[in-house]
Amino acid sequence: MHFEVPQPILICTFTNVAVDNLVEGLAKVGVKPLRVGSQGNIRPSLIPHSLDYKMQMHYLYPTFREVTKEIETLANGIRDLGARYAKFLRKTEGLKGAPTKRRIATTENMFKDLEMKKLRLKGIQRKKYAIEQDMLRDVVAEADVVGYFPTFHLQQLRSLRSARHVSRLLLHPSTLLTFPWSSWMRLRCQLSPLP
After folding, report:
1. H or E, element range at 170
2. Which class in CATH covers the domain with range 9-59+136-187?
3. Neighbour order of strands in the sheet with 9-12
4. pTM above the 0.85 mark?
5. What digits encode the pLDDT tens for the residues 49-88?
6. If DSSP states are collapsed to H, E and C, what string results for 79-110?
7. DSSP for 135-151, written as a single string
């Protein structure tokens, strides 16, 4: 049996176990499923169908990891420089008399360096987001059906739907009873349940 799906269909279920059952059944009949949700209790046979696994297998993943490490390094540098800057300011305030030109220049340079690093961090974070979206788009495009437990990864659901990575949303009736009402109200304009 082969299905042709122009865009993946997003199916929300009542529990992670239901997602697993759905993904397992679809994989057995030749449909390409993608499991989105907690990795904690995933069946070992379903790991190759999980979003995390497929993202890690993506050709951009090494670049994504490098950018993530660069962000961590830069964030640590900003935190350290910020602490040194604050300490330097406290020392300057504790001094008697007007600060020297050298102390003023040092303070200004530390502040400029800190602001430049923050701007650089924002740029690298945008780069990471763009890479992640490219990876997500590719992974979802390869799937016929995306199985999802909606009370988990709410941000990923918004991202999938708002970026038009999926064409339809199927909700199990019991899912509507357990989905947080406030979350449903925020998403209802983006999501279109099928009968």
Report:
1. strand 168-171
2. alpha beta
3. 33-36, 145-148, 9-12, 168-171
4. no
5. 998 999 999 999 999 999 999 999 999 999 999 999 998 8
6. HHHHHHHHHHHHHHHHCCCCCCHHHHHHHHHH
7. HHHHHHHH-SEEEE-TT
